[in-house]
Design a protein that fits this description.
single chain; alpha+beta; three-stranded antiparallel beta sheet; 3 helices; 6 strands; about 25% strand; Molybdenum ABC transporter ATP-binding protein
Length: about 110
Amino acid sequence: MEIVTIIATKFVRHDVPELATLQNAKVYQLREKLNKGDKLNRAEKNWLAEAVNRNAYFKRAVPLMGYRFGFEDVLKSYIVKQYGSWLEYNAPDKTSLRSIIYGRIDQIAEISK
């Protein structure tokens, strides 16, 4: 029996293109790579941290053309103190998180769940 791993789920009501038409998208390729058990390189981790934290739809996923590409399995939650305020981010690691935050960072702490 073959185990089927999900690449993405539809999150909109309207018609969207077939998921297979998005195979050339970076987010699709990253999810496929992780499903195969491969590790992400530094550039891919940095891209994922940026994509997850700069979209308005999800905190631990990337939206594309009405599909939700979840990355809950590789993302960790962090709180960052910057300019006297604490903000929560999700990223694969601290290095990728630092790559998307501008300015001086006072402190970063991982939130264990």
